[in-house]
Amino acid sequence: MERFTIRKNDYLSEHTLVYYHQPYLHYQEPGNPDFLNVLKNLINDEGQRRIDAARQEVYDIVHKDLPAIMEERQLDEAVIVVVPRSKVFTRPSQLGFRLTIQDCVRMLRANGYPNMIDGTECIKRHTETKTTHLRKFLRGYFNNGPEPYKGITKATCHINADMVRDKVVILIDDIYTPKVNVDEDCAQALLDAGAKRVILYVIGYTQHNN
Asked: What superkingdom does the record give (predicted)?
């Protein structure tokens, strides 16, 4: 696991620490975490066996990394929040990433980390936005909604402010891509909701866009 800092910008009012597990290279490139693409399951065509295997990959990574972040930052308590998907998906087969984080947090809470608060449903999308990582037409997928803009998280999601007020938040996403500003805007929405501090944790870091 590595870390870097996002500098404050038009979307984010303060410098924000980011932890990432591994680089995200290109889909199907050797060593790339393609299991993250499986869990996106955009047109709901992935088989259950592949979804289960991808969920296990994420679970094993997060189960190791979250305690390491808590210990390195010497956090007495943290709320674990997940960046919402761009679409209002309701099928469990398309919510595999969030559900895996939720399962992992619950298991960690029951096994030595009761100071991890399950905030995986803190942010709930009510209005669809454009899927930013999709660069070409995908048959059967209607990529509607606006591109990222400042304040898009608050405009398109319900946020449970009571869950994060005066708390340190570990905000989790599958992939961080510089200059897209989705994660930055989400972190700012949590700060505006009263979070004391937000640490971003992602599985993959898209470095080829730098």
From this structure: Bacteria
